[in-house]
Amino acid sequence: MIIPRREFLSLLGVTAGAAGLGGCGPSWEVPDRLVELAQRGPGLERQIQTVCGLCPAGCGLTVRLVDGLPVGLKGNRNHPLNRGGLCPVGQASLEVLYSPQRLKAPLRRNSRGEFEPVGWEEAIAEIAERLGALRDRGAGGRIGLLHGSTSSLFEDLLRQFLGVLGSANLACTEGSAVLPYSLSQGVDRVPGFDLSNSDVVLSFGLDLFEDGPAPIHAISALIGSRTTADRGALLHVGSRLSPSAAKAQRFVPVRPGTHGAFALGVANVLVREGRYDRDFVAQRTFGFDDWTEQGQQHLGFRRLLLERYYPDRVAQICGCPAASVADMARRFARASAPLALVGGEATAGSNASWNVMAVHALNALMGVFNRPGGVMPAPQIPLTALPPLQPPPGPAASIFGRAGLGRRDPVELLATRAGDAPPAVEALFLVETNPVHWKPRGAKLAEALQQIPLVVALTPFLDESARQADLVLPTHVFLEGWQAWSTPLTTALSVLGLAQPVVEPLFETRHPGDLLLELARRAVPDLASAVPWSDYTEYLKYRLTALASSGQGSLLSGAFEESWRHFLEQRGWRFLRHRDAEDFWNELVRQAGWWSPPSSPGHWEWLFPNQSQRYEFFSRTLRQRLIEEGGSGESAERSLQRAIESLQLAAGPDEVCLPHYEPPSQLGEGDLTLVPFRPITARGDLGSASPMVMEMFGYPVLSGWESWAELSAETAQELGVDEGDWVALESEEGSIEARVRVQPGAAEGGVYVALGLGRELAEHRSVVGSNPIRIMLADRDGLSGNLSLTSTRVRLRLLQRAPAGSRRWTQEEGGHV
Amino acid sequence: MKNATNDNAASAYADQELLRSVEQSGAGFRVASTLLLLVLLAGWLLFSRQLLYGMGVTGLNQPVVWGFYIVNFVFFIGISHAGTLISAILRLSNAEWRRPITRMAEVITVVVLAIGGFHPVLDLGRPDRMLNIFTAGRLQSPLLWDVSSITAYFMASTVYLYIPMIPDIALLRDRGTWPHWFYTFLAWGWQGTPRQRKVLDRAVGIMMVLVIPVAISVHTVISYIFAMTLQPGWHSTIFGPYFVVGAIFSGIAALLVVMIVLRRIYHLERYLKQVHFDHLSKLLLVMSLLWFYFTFSEYLTAFFGHEPTEMRVFFHKFLGPYAIFFWGMVACNFLIPVGILSFRRTRTIPGILVASCAVVVGMWLERLNIVVPSLANPRLPYPTGFYFPSLVEWAMFAGGIATFILGFVVFARFFPLISIWEIREGREHSIPETTERLQGYLPDPEPGGTPVSAGR
Amino acid sequence: MSRWGMVFDLDRCTGCSNCMAACHQENNLAASGPEETRLGRAFHWIRLLPEASQSPHGVRIQFIPQPCFQCDDPPCVRVCPVHATYLSEEGIVGQVYSRCIGCRYCMAACPYSAKVFNWYEPNWEGDLAKKANPDVSMRPKGVVEKCTFCHHRIIAAREESRARGRALEDGDVTTACAESCPAQAIIFGDLDDPQSRVSLAARGPRAFRLHDDLGTEPKVYYLAEQE
Ligand SMILES: Nc1nc2c(c(=O)[nH]1)N[C@H]1C(S)=C(S)[C@@H](COP(=O)(O)OP(=O)(O)OC[C@H]3O[C@@H](n4cnc5c(=O)[nH]c(N)nc54)[C@H](O)[C@@H]3O)O[C@H]1N2
Ligand SMILES: Nc1nc2c(c(=O)[nH]1)N[C@H]1C(S)=C(S)[C@@H](COP(=O)(O)OP(=O)(O)OC[C@H]3O[C@@H](n4cnc5c(=O)[nH]c(N)nc54)[C@H](O)[C@@H]3O)O[C@H]1N2
Ligand code: SF4
Ligand code: SF4
Ligand code: SF4
Ligand code: SF4
Ligand code: SF4
Ligand SMILES: [Mo]
Fold first, then answer.
1. SS3 B107
2. Which value, to the nearest 10 degrees, does the dihedral of the CA atoms of residues A766, A772, A776, A781 take?
3. Measured at the alpha carbon of residue C88, what is the angle toward residues C207 and C5, in degrees to the nearest 5?
4. Fewest CB within 10 A of the end CB: N or C in chain B?
5. What per-residue confidence (pLDDT) applies to B38?
6. Total-model pTM
7. Residues of B engaging A, defined by a Cβ cutoff of 8 Å
8. How many Cβ atoms sit within 10 Å of the Cβ of residue A741?
9. Does residue C194 surpass a pLDDT of 90?
10. Starting at the edge strand that comes first in sequence, how are the strands of the sheet with A250-253 ordered?
């Protein structure tokens, strides 16, 4: 017996009505006039499901509209990522929507270098004309596009857009995190970590509940969607007692950047005490024991651990008690589904990749791959392929280079190469990204942008980068336009969140997708077949037809509907979920997304897609790459050695290919190491447009609207400053001001400043707080090329003493710390 | 008969200099009052910003929701205990040296009550809704207890000031002093007939009995505003008497200052003699010791109990940001007055002036020490607990003081500062009365016996 | 008759501060701005109290969400001169903005500093007021306000249940802060209903109240963190 979806739903409706379920349930309307009327003003109030677009996590949103105006929002209970939860920034997103700082019309830089309003048609015509000219000159390869971390479907469109123009110069300003995983595990995408089924998460530097790809998912997966009895436990190794660290069962404070060493210490204990998964290590990994190749012996991970990373030495490196290493190791090993995560400060420094390899090695030792609560690649989302470029102009190789070893940060590259003659980039698009603010030496980049003949910024705000553009095209904020958000990094379940507009655009703004499609068509009419979509919505529909027909996963329907289908399916009923793609699309829109639970791929080749099809403790991939890097003919050993020297690494030729500890670099002089962090109130990039987010920004230190510098009590005492004092932090690059907060758990000699302040979203605005990146010296992670944010040493200068008598701690328990 | 007229003539001559302030007011009055009015005006101009924009223009903040307005409210009301209460007690106890003092004392009360009583209104976020207190008042709220007892005290004090003034007003009327209609109206047809005198004495008698409990109640319930909350440093049983003692203490000090200043300005040396200051300053000395006793027991109990929340307030005052104000208070209210007033050598008029000024300042500091530190140290932590008054608050403080002085300048312009008829009454009746009374204290002569002096 | 209460499970709460943001949006709180905040006039109906303590294994911080405790014996109500703050029969301590004279006595009397004062006319820059929740009034300058347990939601829920012809059930009403808490750390409901989640939790072994000793009988409970 086969029931079409409509009937199934109406059946549910009746049941629901009878069972008296409902309100305006997210997944179906209850046919109940009474309820309608009971809600103040019949028919005036509606709820729409959409997806928060303020950060790439893409939490599900339920927006409440009264008289067609959004007046409230809450998390979408059916969304597998956030299960009804939200972060404060997403919660405040209506203030971003209505922000008076938003751009209301396109701007063009006039001869005097000032911005003046310009009509849409004029702006688009001019850009299309100049792009067309470049391409016809065969100089399409000099068109570049930078974007922030955004939806992968949108990224595909950006690539297609450039392809049409004959360019491959697409780069994300957020550095890529995949390299160390590809070196060890062989994957080309950061793997998924199944938090929902893990019982102990050991986090290295990652403030799991505030920072990282999807903090709200982390909270919901470990705590929110579980009972208090079986909620996941968190262990934290870091240099700052963040709210997440404070939430951890155990927090071990370590020196900034030494997380990798601690991880290896843990590995040492696991190996010494035999508390690791022998079978997995034997069958699925490479390089654990010493090995020989062409008669030459190579160092194995086990020996390296036992010789170099015994707890006492690790304790010395990390500045923590040796006992805490063993304690963490045992708590980790005792777990039935342990997971080791790394991020935040541990992946912000010059030794980021090494830290990741060291931490990920713990997952390999425990053999948690390919099983619930472990490391699993998120199921692929079936998407329709993009139409080929006919005739293919064969885009030149990207000037930004391919991701991987020795790659330079695209932004840094621009900053250095903009002056070239002939210019490396003649036209640059900045699509909803703001490198001038978020990258070290932003001032340098700003100058570089000035030299580029045509810079076009697509952004809802006239931010620091847009100020350097020649044309600024105002785009919608997420509540005004369509977007499809695919699985965020590190999540094991797979989601496609579909965001629909909940309100008519407030100003003369356009959707960036629509814009680029129009530009592509007008610049290169003869390739219109490669971008056949009238607008971005059409594009999304096109890409999602494959999903509709795949029959995989399910829509984000309510638990009730799911359980009903399950119940009936078990009894032999079969459901045509959707009549056709159109029907699927409508359902997808109504329920704001599709998802598929974590599933083990079963076959290992797919899990470890490298030549050995194993987890490589000893990364042969890395060895190969380093040898290439070292270059030119003569013996592999020599070029390997040269590569090690050029990368200024401390490790020896074998050690370098194994998970090991590289000390973090420190530039400039000064008695403090500047370590930035992201409080949850700095989620996304636009929170600073919301007054309420600014007012609660520093809630962990009971402050708002200002930057603060966290110091340990000891450090504060040495420097002769105290809680509440107003100080300047100075480096060769400049100086920022902040208020001293004496924070327990902060590492000695570290000064911690929150990211997300010091934003300029509009002209003639007093800037709130200050941006620590502005005073950072640019060093990089030698492997991935990502710029380091923790390599700057700064001096602290007292500007103004605080009025006495300000208090921050409840003193009943513990008091001043 | 002849004698009597001579007496009258003599006393009529005596009255002259008491009336000088009224009948020969010169440029001094005009200059002084103009200056004071300007100060007051400036205060109100600044205050208008608060009316326009809201309480935000003050230095108040989230934990410290009360500041200068409430401090000065308590302070001024405290001063008001100088007058009516003291003069009533002196009258009741028939202390003859009171005669030249009582009126000034009563004037202080009325003027200062008007000022102090207005301060809570300055402190309202919605002064436009002030009348809600009457239309929607909750008698359970200590604030309403205040409203009622202060109103009562103000009424009583005004009447109590006015009644004994009638004979002097009549005198001014009879001398045809300008503005004649004014005195005629206020004199209320006073002819000094025996019956009128009887009624007057009766009225004064009733008022002085009535006014004492009201006065006591006023500062008791003001202390209740704080004591009735659970806040550390406020929730104390001895706050009632503590406040009353403090009030009388500051009252006497203020009275002394006023007396010394007016004595100088209006040349009242013949009336306000060393003996008056001596008596009053001894009273001040006693109050100082009493004040110290209360303060000591208040803080000892807090310290000995050592409750964390209490201790936070305690240290805020003893060692913290408020240490200067706290120890300043102790110096002004105890060390200085006791140091000066305990010795006859230093108990001179300049000495007394210094001591009294110290006490007035010290008592203001005490009000500050009571209001702010408790608010600045709430049980649960707040980003900041620091209060510094804004220009508006300072201006209104200055305005309050200006009003106080202005009150005296104006009063002295229209009425004698010393009760003429009471002085005269003193001369005419009290001297025989007191000798009689003294004899009443002494043992009676033996019945029909020889005088004592004639020994064996 | 219900007696509304709230439980914060500190074992779940991660100190993410979403409850603060949710309350801002739901109850039309206007930010006070940088200068005001620096003066200590930041505007929140619910705060996160940082509490530091020494534990056997090093220093611990905890972030304790604190709304108005809706005391059953509220010191703030007792002192109000004009009945502008009152204890409703459902145990919610409300503010009557249009009657409050702004004396701030209730703030001085609240042992938990739970109330906030409109030092100026609330400032809604540009079109920001368009996002205001129509169920909750905007407040004028010079009056005191505080967490209301989202009592407008209670009314709405009651209307709905009445329309459905059934009694209000556990879970029908939830507050804005509880609704979007990612850790599901907030339980709201009727303390008088012995079977409601909130009353079960409030009677549980981990339950405690802040400054219970004051006898203000808060209706906001906390569940202690477990090792
Ligand atoms: N923070 C804040 N405080 C406010 C206000 C505000 O907007 N914000 N508004 C103020 C104003 S204007 C008002 S009117 C008050 C309202 O405050 P209240 O009048 O206390 O209204 P509620 O407490 O919300 O609910 C009304 C009461 O009536 C009961 N009730 C509900 N329906 C019925 C019914 O059908 N029959 C009977 N017998 N009882 C019923 C409910 O149980 C509840 O105890 O709140 C005032 N306080
Ligand atoms: N969902 C839901 N809806 C409700 C209610 C509820 O509990 N839940 N409550 C209902 C009830 S009982 C009421 S009374 C209404 C209340 O709804 P409103 O009447 O809108 O809210 P109020 O807080 O009573 O204040 C009304 C406005 O008067 C202004 N105001 C305050 N004081 C003064 C003043 O002195 N002068 C002038 N000119 N203006 C002033 C303030 O700006 C305030 O916005 O809402 C009703 N609607
Ligand atoms: S900002 Fe990011 S984390 Fe916060 S709600 Fe939106 S999507 Fe989720
Ligand atoms: S929202 Fe929930 S988890 Fe976040 S702080 Fe509030 S109570 Fe804690
Ligand atoms: S917590 Fe404070 S404001 Fe809330 S009811 Fe209790 S006393 Fe009143
Ligand atoms: S501020 Fe308003 S609510 Fe508070 S006590 Fe005064 S009148 Fe009552
Ligand atoms: S219950 Fe409502 S009013 Fe109270 S804190 Fe939560 S959201 Fe704010
Ligand atoms: Mo109302």
1. helix
2. -130
3. 20
4. C
5. 95
6. 0.87
7. 308, 312, 316, 320-321, 376-377, 380-386, 388
8. 21
9. yes
10. A250-253, A233-238, A200-204, A338-342
Residue B290 sits at the vertex; the CA angle it makes with B288 and B293, to the nearest 5 degrees, is 110
Those residues whose C-beta lies under 8 Å from the C-beta of residue A103, and which sit 6 or more positions away, are: A459, A460, A461, A462, A472, A474, A507, A509, A762
Helices (H), B142-273: 142-162, 166-174, 180-187, 194-227, 239-265
Using alpha carbons, select from A769, A686, A705 the residue that is nearest to residue A101.
A686
- Of A798, A740, A806, nearest to B388 by C-alpha is A806
Q: In angstroms, rounded to a whole number, what is the distance separating the alpha carbons of residues C145 and A784?
A: 53
Q: Which amino acid is at B66?
A: W
A814 has a chain B CB within 8 A of its CB: no
> Residue B78 pLDDT more than 80?
yes
What is the sign of the dihedral through the CA atoms of C204, C205, C209 and C213?
positive
The share of chain B scoring above pLDDT 70, in percent, equals 94
Tokens 């076959």 found at: A603
For chain B, positions 231-260, list CB contacts with chain C under 8 A. 231
Q: Which residues pair with A737 in a beta bridge?
A: A728
The label of the residue with tokens 């040796």 reads A322
Q: Would the CB of C177 count as within 6 Å of ligand 7?
A: yes
Q: Residue ranges of chain A with pLDDT lower than 70?
A: 1-43, 390-396, 403-404, 558-578, 601-602, 633, 804-817
Strand, helix or coil for residue B124: coil
CB atoms within 10 A of CB B159: 17
pLDDT at C94: 95
| CA proximity to C25, closest of A25, A224, A49, A90 | A90
Amino acid identity of A342?
A: V
pLDDT in tens, B381-418: 776 567 899 999 999 999 999 999 999 999 988 998 99
Per DSSP, what are the bridge partners of residue A672? A794
Tokens encoding A460: 């809802």
User: To the nearest whole number, what is the mean pLDDT of chain C?
Assistant: 93
Q: Whole-angstrom Cα distance, residue B299 to residue B284?
A: 22
Q: Could you give the CA distance from residue C200 to residue C9 in angstroms, rounded to a whole number? A: 12
**Residue from A483, A485, A479, A484 nearest A501 by CA:** A479
Among chain A residues, the shortest Cα distance to B375 is held by A805
CA B421 from chain centre, in angstroms, equals: 23
CB A473 within 8 Å of CB A123: yes
Q: Is B448 helix (H, G, I), strand (E, B) or coil?
A: coil
SS3 B450: coil
